[in-house]
Design goal:
The structure is a homotetramer. Chain A is mostly helical. Chain A has 11 helices and no strands. Chain A starts with a helix and ends in a 36-residue tail after the last helix.
Chain lengths: 281, 281, 281, 281
């Protein structure tokens, strides 16, 4: 029995084995197809003709994901840790709505949240390069966290100020029926989205809007500059680190520790660097 | 009495004490809630049902901010300096409209300008990191002031030139009723906002608009490049400075000098670096 | 005969001779004019009056390109290699639709795909500078391939998640008739395009859309930062390489090898660096 | 007489004297006011009431600019050179339309092209800092000329390709009445302008449009990266140069050589660096 659990564990959590890779790709395709099925069901013309087929497909996908969820719990050394981990909750969330839809009509649409499961499957494409890049991007964005907050804070103040002014200048007779709608207009303009559902008609409103557009057009430079600098720094740093800490340019093996769920072990690692548990189950 | 003034002073102007921090967070929440209240009052459906409650809430918030304003004057060493300082005027501006609304109907809406008071509360989030970042951003933007002016000047010239051309090409029969409106269209297009309320219908007008879009799409690179370079320089400089002038990595204490209203004193500072007045009132 | 083939070869594939340059410019103009002709034919007013003339023009252009295609095959040392090369297929694709239009009405419109032939003519403008720049851009974009994939993957997840939420919040009664349309709206908003054909009307939908706009406005910083860093690196690298490998600053000659179709030979090269075949046919 | 000409010359072409500065500011204000007058005349409501006043104002401005134009010719050492210089032609262009309007009704609107005269007045604001920044921006943009051309070339190819596809997919029944309009739609979407006057309604058209938006959203990174790198290089270079060639940090004097119309002389220059003519007329 234990041997079976080990084998399943390597298939589900591992990446470097052909079986593990095939499993990941199959899962990716299944998630995309199932989300596509849910989407189609909301398209009236399609649903009218193929309602039965779509519902059957959805139940098949849900059955597969439920089986997978059960297997993940079954092979985990610490099932509770998995169940309450970030990915564990997403896995649950991606099957629950379908079962709930038996009682609450329409709730199965929320199954499309299972697109979040793709987050785990970054590793399918070229594996480590992607994980390194995504963690680098994460670090770059986190490092500029404070700068981004200052930026958002400024955007909030501008939006409320100019939103109020626009409400005063244009008024309900020109479509600016209340301040929340005016603030919506301000954000739509500042971010250069520009729906055009509300448009200033008074000269003063048009002038203020032009100012707003140019401000929006200009301050986009701020987050760009911030993140750009951080990315440049991050790229430089990780290049140095790579050469410093890893002179032989080893790769990562992509195994998730069965004990503590940590990833990022060297290709030749035999024990988890985090908890010391063996990686060869 | 003086002891009471000192205590209040530390609560209102200080940041590092638990009481000071609690006061700042309370103020932040009060400002946001009061602005939200004013916004809701302009939403017809909500105001129709809850008019009485909203008005009472607004008067409560105004009472609180008026009390705070009085206290700030009371505990200041130089009240006049505070009253005519940037933040002093904003504090006044955020309570005046409500009292004016007794005489001038509708003026209380302007109370939402009190959102500007948030500027002082940057320090609530992680305190010093934010102040440093926002001052760094400010320096970066100021340093590229001349470049930005050249950029805006160019945008103005393009807008008037192409606005006139579009008025000539499209004419009033296609919605380009006058040059100011054409200039508005030009800015809307150049900044890639694109409301769609005015759209060129002649082939020549469409061609010119396409040129304009590509220009707009391209010159967004200019402010981005400018600010990016300045941010990179600023980050590099401040890192060096930090290590040069502050080998022990002290932090700032967040106290505002009672004498000259300056901020930015070191954690172990006993006297204001600006006016020499003691910081331990 | 062989002398004739050599001469034609140099005219068609070469760049540095006056005849070769003239041929390239002539081809560029012919492609642009022929695409313009096809476009005009779809404009009802123009086609109504000049239908005959436009059709004749199109057949003339097609005849010219067919002749050119035949010549390219005729002078190639390895005709099959040319026919199945990227440019060979495009050359075929740019004449086929016109002949097909004899059997399938309307298919000649696809002739406008011959705009792809312009890709080969980059070299017309200042020749080598352009080839170097475009290959540099290509390298910069390829180098950030992994980062860009991570970015697109994230955009996909955000689009499906928020698209589903918007469908739930706004619903078919506000124009969000199905999830695919909601996802379309999400992408339109996230990329700051903002058509305005679908606009949120519920407060919650407007709030979520504002979040989406600010996210979209912010994450544009990510590809910008990525590509910017790569371009900077690429520029730095190629400057060093230029000086290292080419101390005499030779230029490229722009000849395409008749044997293996490789480009990028030094000005004084006599043999192809790739297959060793002589370049002086 | 010659003394008078010298004095006028210094006022008109010089910058460092109080009179010269006052003249420049006066000119700037006059240009802006005159353009504003022309704009107002096209606004029906305003023109209806103040037609007479606006026409008189326009004639006054034209008279002033004509006098200035005559003076510029009069004090020039080589009048013909001035007349056919870039600024000379703009000066003429800014007065001609008004005189032409006597014969051709409506042509006076073109007077708003005199906004181009502002180009010469960059120097009004903080003088040299601006000239240096604008020349730096110009160098940065020129240096990335080839990269920008490659970029535009790519945009052209994408626009024609996808424009044709959209015409095929959506067709005239969905508003894509011809290929030029489809290309217009493609550019509107690619540059993230998004008017919303044409919107895809077929699933395939929506899918292609989403691809287009993401491409557009992504490739904005390319010009940004290009110009950013060039600006960074330019800033670095000019800082070095300033210190190398100008150890005493002299400033420029802002005088335009009366002989050859060159600008950019050092503050202590007595002769034109270009033609050797004395600068002290």
């Amino acid at each position: 029995m234990d041997l079976f659990r080990q084998k399943v564990y390597i298939i589900i959590y591992g990446v470097n084995t052909p079986a593990g890779k095939a499993f990941d790709i199959g899962l990716l395709v299944a998630i995309l197809l199932s989300v596509f099925t849910i989407m189609l069901e909301t398209v009236e013309g399609v649903d009218y003709i193929y309602h039965r087929e779509l519902v059957i497909l959805e139940w098949i996908f849900t059955a597969v994901f439920t089986l997978e969820y059960a297997l993940r719990i079954f092979v985990s050394k610490k099932p509770l840790k998995y169940i309450f981990s970030f990915y564990g909750l997403i896995d649950l969330l991606s099957i629950l709505p379908m079962f709930l839809s038996v009682f609450i009509k329409g709730s199965h649409i929320l199954s499309s949240f299972r697109i979040l499961r793709l987050l785990r499957l970054f590793r399918v494409f070229g594996l480590m390069e992607f994980m390194r890049e995504s963690s680098r991007l994460k670090v770059a964005i986190l490092a500029s966290r404070a700068k981004i907050m200052v930026f958002l804070y400024t955007v909030l103040i501008i939006a409320v100020l100019i939103g109020t002014l626009m409400y005063y200048i244009e008024g309900p007779e020109n479509g600016f029926t209340n301040i929340p709608k005016s603030v919506f207009y301000t954000i739509v303009t500042l971010t250069t989205v520009g729906y055009g559902d509300m448009v200033p008609t008074t000269p003063l409103g048009q002038f203020l809007s032009m100012l707003l557009m140019i401000i929006g057009y200009g301050i986009i430079a701020v987050p760009t500059g911030i993140v750009g600098v951080e990315i440049a720094r991050e790229v430089g740093k990780s290049m140095k680190e790579n050469y410093k800490t890893d002179p032989e340019h080893r790769k990562l093996n992509g195994i998730v520790c069965a004990h503590c769920n940590k990833e990022g072990h060297w290709d030749d690692a035999e024990y988890c660097y985090n908890c010391g548990h063996t990686l060869n189950i």
